[in-house]
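U., I forgot to send this yesterday:
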Amino acid sequence: MCKKRIAMILTAALMIMGVSMPRAALAEEGVKRNTTFTSMEEMQKKLGTSEAGVWSPAYLTEVENTYWTFADQKDPAGKEISLDMAKNCYRNLEMLLDNGYTMDYDVLFSYCKEYLGKRNGEPDAFYNIMTGCLKNPYLINRPEAKVTATTYNGRDYSKVFDASYYYSSNPDVAKSIGDDPPELLRHFVEIGITEGRAGNKTFDVKEYKKTVDENVKEAMLKSALYASLGDNAAEPVGQYSYSYANYYGKYLGHYVTGEDTNGAAEGGSADPAGDSAEAKTVAGTYTTQSTKSVYTNETVSRELANARPIAVMMPTDKAAQPSFGIGNAEILYEIMEEGSISRQMAIIPDWQGIDRIGNLRSCRKYYIYAAKEWDPILIHFGGVVYMKGFIDAADVNNLSGTYEYGVGGKAPGAGYFFRSSDRSAPHNAYISAAGIKKAARQQGYSLNLRSSYYNPVHFKFAQGINDLSKYADATDAEEIDLSRVFPYSRTRLVYNEKEGRYYKEIHGGPQKDAVTGEQLSFANVIIQNTKWKTMDEKGYLDFTMIDSTEDGYYFTKGKRIHIHWKKDTDYSPTKYYDDFGNEIEMNTGRTYIAIAQEGKYK
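Result:
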């Protein structure tokens, strides 16, 4: 694309956002974020609070909320989307680009090419979404778009564009371009949309905007979090976006993975995070002929090898012990949350016969990343506002006993949860295997692994027994004290040499399964040091689950070695390597993974 055309596009985008820049700076600076509405100072002034969780339902648009989830708060006026942010926000990347943020085409193209190579040429949903964004008209340094009279880079604009109408209605464009339908469409997509020009006589984007914004505002006013602000709360702006491109994108169905695409003008929902049960249904079933468990390397039936596991949120609270069904977990994660208390997520492949699973607690955003690499049905009892846009995404199949991100969202399958009378709330919420099956049918969830998301290559298991004797620097580790990592539960694992497994303790005693009465034990223990931050004054935490720069430790057979870990994308498995760069060989059996706040465990 010529520099002149790029400059025209950037100038138009800047005009729509009320931002002026010297022409010479355009090529270097790109399109600036809309700081008029979203600077840190402006947000605090509008709502009288610095808590981002309050901004999102009462003021921010869905696009802006996605940005603020991952933006570096030290640079609130930042405009350029980094590759890491693109990977984290990939479902909303198209919306962000349409809203005036910038990303370089070559950076995204190179990453997509590298990612496909790692998958041996097999694309998945993540790859398809990211490569789809390469066709966005607002990427910087992109190649010339392929344009016909009605399509731009394969996207059909016939519902909103007629070349003859655009030619006759815009004399300035007709004079500079002439009666050339493809070039008229190019102008409309790259410049006309951001200027609010009409593309045909039937679709009025400004009237459509009014309808969408009215519905957004109504939804905000009815939201539980807005109600919690009190009678003196500022009225929400109720604006879906600050860019006409996002309204066109919504109407035309460009954002099919993150929101409703029917369009408010056509009777669809105007909730930016809404999606239908149909959108949650994913065609294509993964099929393996293997009878080796991907979780433990033990022999399983072919039916079980192809079945989806459940990922169950369970507490470490002393009053909530013991949990029902946790002994069936073949992978058990433990991570800190607010209030200096940890929580657990049990990955349970063989759950179909359990009558009582739980008790169940709320989820946090970072658990979603850990869960995804197993393609489970995620079972939880609500969550927090920072999960919005993640737990309710079309590719995530979850069942929740209440609003899925705590202050909003749906409650998929809530009718199949139940409370017991033997414990007090909140420690008495459960679900059964029968309830999960019924809820899954209700929601349109597959009970078999999904080919578009499941990755069968997880742990590398040893051919025989790995006693770590080949590592000269391996140290004795018959006891693993995690009291500094998890101070409330005082998690501890003790090695049983006779059985070759580590037995788990919390609160100074054995952690047991309520169904069997047996203590939890693991063949493999991983401590995964992870970057983290505090999100707000309530102490909500965030962990960087997609990373390649952190270390940790691997324990097995009473020994310990230093390791490094790496996770590339949502659905890619976390890989663990020794100090020589070799993937560690794990022993057959169950695995406990402690996600440790960086600096807590040495």
